[in-house]
Design a protein that fits this description.
It is a single chain. With 82 residues, this protein is of the alpha+beta class. The chain has 4 helices and 3 strands. The protein has a single domain, classed as Winged helix-like DNA-binding domain superfamily/Winged helix DNA-binding domain (Arc Repressor Mutant, subunit A, Orthogonal Bundle). Strands 1-3-2 form a 3-stranded antiparallel β-sheet. It is globular, with a radius of gyration of 12 Å.
């Protein structure tokens, strides 16, 4: 699995039990705790995932991440990765 997919999987694992996972705003520190990668590498993954439509990122008082419907579909196996 490419590391960006591992990052998407980590995001999914955090939000999957929420009744509305695409509306959950995930603080970046939650992701940092679950990734065993250098932060700059994770940031690159997040940028790629956002460009491809799998997540959104917003800068509030802290940066927050949301998984998109497209991200949910790929991580749950409903849509194959290209």
């Amino acid at each position: 699995m490419e590391n960006k997919w591992a990052t998407l999987q980590a995001i999914y694992n955090i939000v999957k039990d929420n009744p509305h996972p695409t509306t959950l705003l995930l603080p970046t520190n939650e992701l940092i705790l679950r990734q065993n990668l250098p932060w700059d590498e994770v940031v690159n993954h997040l940028k790629e995932l956002q460009e491809e439509g799998y997540i959104t990122m917003r800068q509030l008082s802290v940066a927050v991440i949301s998984i998109t419907d497209k991200g949910l579909q790929i991580v749950t196996g409903l849509t194959p990765a290209i």
